[in-house]
Amino acid sequence: MKDLMRLRTSLKEELQIALNAQVKMEAESSSKYLAMAAWLDRNGYSNSADFFFTQAEEERGHMLKIFKYISDMGGVAITPEVTNIPQEYPTFRSVFETALEQEIAVSQSISRIVGLTRRHDDYATENFMQWFVKEQIEEEYIARRQVELFDVIGEEGIGRYTIDQEIAKVTYPGAAGEAGAE
């Protein structure tokens, strides 16, 4: 029976654990962005709230993509439990700084998984993870530019209103014309 289980998946145990941890991280990102959207909406930043509602759904999609990959490869995909999501933020800016920190952490986690795929000669999983590597370049760029809006525009006077108007306009220039971009 143990030999049959070994044949069931080509995923090494260490990679399966790392991928399931990434599933959890993506689920947590989705929940954090949903909480951020709610906070922004409560505080009158409707454009920023809409941005984070969309981001929450996108992160959920990332979670499902990895979850399904684990399952498709014959591994055991684990439904993540998400708890202790902050519901309050001290300032408008802090929401975006927290999002940038989250995106950097996700990028680092994905890089660790790619490193594991290389150590285990798992070319299929490395190929699968390259989509996430490219996605994180875009995610970090957008998050960084959004935080920079606070410095460029300033929060005084109509600054916060203007920032809220500009948030959704920040895009990654490398995404234009890319096939398969989501």
Unreliable stretches covering 5 or more consecutive residues: none
Q: What proportion of the residues form beta strands (DSSP E)? A: under 5%
Structural class: mainly alpha
Instruction: Identify the overall geometry.
Output: elongated
* Structure annotation, total helices: 6
- Work out the radius of gyration: 18 Å
Straight-line N-to-C gap: 41 Å
How many strands, which pairing sense, and closed or not: the largest β-sheet? none
Average pLDDT metric: 92
How would you spell out the order of helices and strands? HHHHHH
The helix content, as a percent range, equals over 70%
Total number of strands: 0
Q: Features of this protein?
A:
6 helices; mainly alpha
Structure description:
The structure is a single chain. With 182 residues, the chain is an all-alpha fold. Helices cover 72% and strands 0% of the residues. The chain contains six helices and no strands. Helix 2 runs antiparallel to helix 3 and helix 2 (13-42) packs antiparallel against helix 4. The termini are far apart.
